[in-house]
Predict the structure.
Amino acid sequence: MRSPGLQRCVRFGMVGGGAGSFIGPVHRTAAEFDGQIRLVAGAFSSDAGRSREAGAHYGVSPDRAYASYAEMFAAERGRDDAIDFVAIVTPNHLHLPIARAALDQGFHVLSDKPATADLAEARALRDRVRHSGRLYGLTYTYTGYGLVREARTICARGDLGKIRKVVVEYSQGWLAERIEATGQRQAAWRSDPAQAGIGGCSGDIGVHAFNLLEFVTGQRVTELAAQLSSVVPGRLLDDDCNVLLRLGSGAPGVLVASQVAAGERNGLTLRVYGERGGLSWSHDEPNRLTLSALDGDTRILHGARNAPVLGDVARAAFRLPLGHPEGYVEAFANIYRDFAALVRAGDAGQSQRSLVPSIDEGVRGMAFVDAAVRSSRARSAWVTVDGS
Ligand code: NAD
């Protein structure tokens, strides 16, 4: 029996995340970070043997390391200690079929981005989510950072005045050479339209940048003009994106995303400028948020659970006191913790507001990719971002 006030452990199964995969192990670590969620099942690979091996590695009971996600959903449905939700960490083209199957079998879904392979799929998934009555969350990782949440609060409170300009840049260099031709696994599926979807760099990291901009400013991008390029010869999808944006308020913005920016690692930076000042956040130093005033003075907010100047939402996203850096795993863990809270609230017949990105943000991400591809094909014409 649980002590009064002790929260029950939320259980999940993972699809993907087998040996050699990138983000699956991060999900597992983040999910279990606060001791509120446990990985108890999985279909970790499309190969039954590899799935079993991964299950052993993760400490999952052998009878719950399944040969396929269909087998997992069917078997878990019949258990008293069934999984509550499914984490999807496979290549993009599988996000829709796995999410659909999970929802149909009564499981909540926490999927990695992009929501689906294209906009039509994202809209179909949104319908399915609404119809299912189950929860659907999306791990747009950067929304989990405490200071990104503080930046959102600052914009919502109007501290910057009316927002006049937004610049978001996400630069990586790991695809500066055609490493997909060497069989590098993460590059191979990301540059294959059948597995990645209609966007290359735009769908892989452009959606993060786009979501970060909308999350922090609280505004929607209504129109854009894009130039997408496949800079590396022979590459089938875009690897570089230069996009002009117009926000709902009419304010202009710029989104730059590249995976051929030689030497760049994971350079995500957001700058927002309003009538009274600006703010800047960079993934290189995620525990700092820089505020700039009209007179050129700058002020740096440091992230921590006891940082006196931060709002409650941001402070709650930190676990450590000032001077103890937190990062990627903690940001992921915040999304998991928030999702677990939603699951528990659902158990209690309650709904609650949450910062976990939903299928609506998933549709918006795919609307961004769709618009960017359309615009680029039309010689960078201005097009509507249709997230309806
Ligand atoms: P990866 O290639 O490293 O791993 C994919 C995993 O999926 C592998 O273990 C593979 O065996 C498994 N898989 C493939 N088909 C399967 C099937 N039918 N059943 C079960 N498992 C199957 O890919 P990755 O880099 O980890 O990316 C996975 C997803 O996570 C992608 O959608 C990507 O966009 C997203 N991602 C998100 C972030 C983030 O910051 N949120 C970072 C990296 C990747």
Remarks:
- The mean pLDDT is 97.
- The chain has twelve helices and 14 strands.
- The pocket of nicotinamide-adenine-dinucleotide is lined by residues 15-18, 21-24, 43, 45-46, 69, 89-92, 94, 112-113, 139, 141, 185-186, 189, 204 (CB under 6 Å).
- The longest helix spans residues 328-347.
